[in-house]
Amino acid sequence: MKEWEPHVNYPVGEVVNIGDRIFLCVLEHRSGEEFDKSNWKKFGDKRMNEHRDKNFACITSMNKDYYDNIGKYMLTTYKKHWSHIMPMYVYNEDCFKIKVKTVDTRGWTLGNDYIAFQRRHTNSKVKVFAKKAYPIIDAMYNLNCDRLIWIDADTVITGSLPPGFVELLCPDDVLSAHFSVWHEKDDKTYHSCETGFFVLNKRHEGFADFASTYKEIYNKDKTEGMRRFYDGEVYGRTVELMQEKGYKMNNLNPARHKTPISRSALAPYITHFKAGLKDRVELDEMIKNQGIDISEIPED
């Protein structure tokens, strides 16, 4: 970890230490002669154990085509940067083989509720996004962890998370850390979440309420208050309902960016491609720049 220095350009997400204290940069700036605490947030000290007493679990989902196009790159970069911090569980549609070591597969046994949802809905996008939602539901109820972390398959992990980073995003008193976004439709504003990444606190007193509410929206088609029946809208609606009950949340997008992850404290650690996939040449270059041997990427 770097020592803080004067006259240096610091991006959001940079982590430095001053003596025994660790600070996270929250405002992009060029440092002056003296350390300015207004640009930083303290979240630990150098004696902090990286894992502390928390058990993290990371999840994602993908089919074989997505795995071949980009998912295998995400999993390979997870292996390099995050595998020492948390396990990765992949919900692999059609139970195809994952060839990246250190990754665990969960298969695609998502239960009768998932089957019923797919049968009663005709909108293709609603059906596709439910393939993300029902693995989340399964993990909520069946994975034993303190913090449940979702990361989209169309992501490349670019750095190891600093000690205490997950707990900075989602401390014990926070139920969910997420990127809130807002959309306008018919002169009404709807809250949603950019669910390329989020953290759920399974040890929070409100977690059971969160999980049952999210699940009920899907199983009973409770779309009131939502713009569309997509996973981000459902997550955003669940957050709203939990906030109304007084549970504390951490919105990682207070500036209301439309594409928030690249402008957040996570920017040094993940790159999210969202709707558009990069071609293999660009992905290969990203992998090489991280010091990963390209031969580690599994063949199709």
Write the layout of secondary structure elements.
Elements: E1 2-3, E2 9-10, E3 15-18, E4 21-25, E5 29-30, E6 40-45, E7 56-62, H1 64-81, E8 88-92, E9 103-105, H2 112-120, H3 124-142, E10 147-151, E11 155-157, H4 165-169, E12 176-185, E13 188-201, H5 207-219, H6 231-244, E14 249-251, E15 270-272, H7 280-289
Parallel strand pairs: 1-3, 7-8, 7-10, 8-9, 12-14
Antiparallel strand pairs: 2-5, 3-4, 4-6, 10-13, 11-15, 12-13
Order of helix and strand elements from N to C terminus: EEEEEEEHEEHHEEHEEHHEEH
Sheet-strand content, in percent, reads: 15-25%
Roughly what is the average pLDDT, rounded to an integer? 89
Question: Ends: how far apart?
Answer: 37 Å
If helices are DSSP runs of H or I spanning 4 or more residues, what is the number of helices?
Answer: 7
Q: Give the total of beta strands.
A: 15
How much helicity do the residues have?
Answer: 25-40%
Task: Please tell me what the overall shape is.
Answer: globular
Q: Major beta sheet, specifics?
A: 7 strands, mixed
Cα-atom radius of gyration: 20 Å
Structural class: alpha/beta
How does CATH name the architecture of the largest domain? Alpha-Beta Complex
Low-confidence stretches: 46-52
Strands ordered across the widest β-sheet: 9-8-7-10-13-12-14
CATH fold description of the largest domain: Spore Coat Polysaccharide Biosynthesis Protein SpsA, Chain A
CATH C-level label of the largest domain: Alpha Beta
Characterize the structure shown:
The structure is a single chain. The chain has 300 residues and is α/β, with parallel strands linked by helices. It folds into two domains: 2-45, Carbohydrate-binding module superfamily 5/12 (Seminal Fluid Protein  PDC-109 (Domain B), Ribbon), CATH 2.10.10; 56-272, Spore Coat Polysaccharide Biosynthesis Protein SpsA, Chain A (Alpha-Beta Complex), CATH 3.90.550. 29% of the residues lie in helices and 25% in strands. A hairpin with a 2-residue loop joins strand 12 and strand 13 (188-201). Helix 3 packs antiparallel against helix 5 and helix 5 crosses helix 6 (231-244). The longest helix is centred in the middle third of the chain and has 19 residues, at 124-142. The protein is globular. Residues 46-52 have low confidence and may be disordered.
